[in-house]
Write a structure and sequence with these properties.
With 200 residues, this protein is an all-alpha fold. Helix content is 77%, strand content 0%. The chain folds into two domains: 16-94, High mobility group box domain (DNA Binding (I), subunit A, Orthogonal Bundle); 129-192, Orthogonal Bundle (DNA Binding (I), subunit A). It is found in: Nucleus.
Amino acid sequence: MPKKAIPKGPEGPRSPFQFFTDTCLEEYRRRHPEEEDYLSRVRNKCQERWVLMSAEEKKRFIQMASEDKTRFKVEKDIVQIVELRRDMAGVKKLASGCSKKKREKPKKKQKKKQKASSEPGKPKRFKSCFFMFCSEHRKRVWTANPDFTPGDVSRELARMWAELSPEEKQVFVEKSNVDKERYQREKFVFENGVCESDSD
């Protein structure tokens, strides 16, 4: 995207002599429209006439120069205001970007807190048969293997679970079913806002 051009400054104020010269040139062009190469010659004559003019004759051009000086000051102030606003907009955008970056990290933390504290009173989900087994045997594995990392303990529990017979696993399946019934009952109470005695 092309950068915005920096606004040019206003045209400088014109002198009384410049206004007089412009008037002479305009008058000469009106009288001699067919002539082309006349600028330098007419300007030299204007300079000669200007020196011989009285203060009263110059008064009109001095007034024009004074008004043009006011025009220049106004336009200069406008350009400065435009440049100042552009600079302020750049600073504001930069500050907004910095503050936005600073706010991003707390927002992530807030989301986690909100997620953890959302829906207070919501029942805890039931444990699977494998997690029932882990809850019962994790402490034993830690005691027997104090040098194990949490990952080592999980792998050992998975190995022990795989070696159980279907009959041995059935104990934990039944415990999981009981916990599942507990979860479904508490979930019904939570979602419908009724007492457990009402749901029987």
